[in-house]
Amino acid sequence: MFDRIHSRYDLLNHVLSGGLDFLWRRRAVREVGVQKGDRVLDLCCGTGDLSQEFAKSGASVTGVDFAAGMLSLARKKYPHLEFLQGDATQVPLDGPYDVAALAFGPRNIHDLQALWREMRRLVRPGGRIMSLELTRPTGILGWFHGLYLRYVLPALGRVISGDNSAYNYLCKTIAHFMDREQLSQSMRDGGLLDVRSIPLTFGIVTVHVARVP
User: Fold this and answer.
1) Full-model pTM
2) Number of domains within the chain
3) Do 100 and 41 touch, CB atoms closer than 8 A?
4) Looking at residue 174, what is its pLDDT?
5) 84: CB partners within 8 A, 6+ apart
6) Beta strand 205-211 with 123-134: parallel, antiparallel or unpaired?
7) Burial code of 121-160, b = ≥16 C-beta within 10 A, e = fewer?
8) Using an 8 Å Cβ cutoff, are 33 and 128 in contact?
9) Are residues 88 and 112 in contact, defined by beta-carbon separation less than 8 angstroms?
């Protein structure tokens, strides 16, 4: 699916988020506290925008994604960065990294405990784990958010990408994925420490940061 939409993936992200995806990535990098010289592993890296945001902080970044089309575009956009094809739960690399991160990836991974185990394997003790993911706001905003997911997002996605099934999938994964606290608990269950969650834009996106024991 991701290979089918890779050529318009960036445009869709920017349009469907109202341009806020740039700000979300920037805030996520700031929250994880990356320093110059840190080694960062960006899982489910897509077309490389989060990798580039880490690189702006002076980090040495490696991006990993299973979709060849996404990686091809990432390499064209950011030829100074390293990108490898691989599964986020079975990364063909060894650490230690200072940070392992992923943006908009947890919803697409069936076994999150396998993900946390792999991130722990790759990150040094005391290193950081970061997740940036779409979440569901609560209250009246949650009701409007549900309408957006059901009607607006699929229509925009279909018009821009020409792929109806891909954006129906996106809406379903957002609607049925864990809420903010459930994702925090999943990270704790995976052995991560000091888990904190930072809701952004009224809770439609959440940054989670944790420490590797």
Assistant:
1) 0.88
2) 1
3) yes
4) 75
5) 62, 63, 64, 71, 92, 93
6) antiparallel
7) ebbeeebbbbbbbbbbbeeeeeeebeebbeeebbeebeee
8) yes
9) no
In terms of residue numbers, what domain contains 76? 2-137+178-211
Q: What is the pLDDT of residue 144?
A: 77
CATH number of the domain that residue 24 is part of = 3.40.50.150
C-alpha 23/C-alpha 58 separation (Å) is 18
**Over the chain (213 residues), what is each successive 10-residue block's mean pLDDT?**
55 71 96 97 97 98 96 97 98 96 94 98 98 89 75 70 63 81 98 98 96 99
Instruction: Report which secondary-structure segment, H or E, holds 123.
Output: strand 123-134
Rg over alpha carbons for the chain, rounded to the nearest Å, is: 16
Per-residue model confidence (pLDDT) at position 163: 60
Any idea which residue has 């990686």 for tokens?
A: 71
Can you give the three-state secondary structure of 166-208, one letter per residue?
HHHHHHHHHHHCCCHHHHHHHHHHCCCEEEEEEEEHHHCEEEE
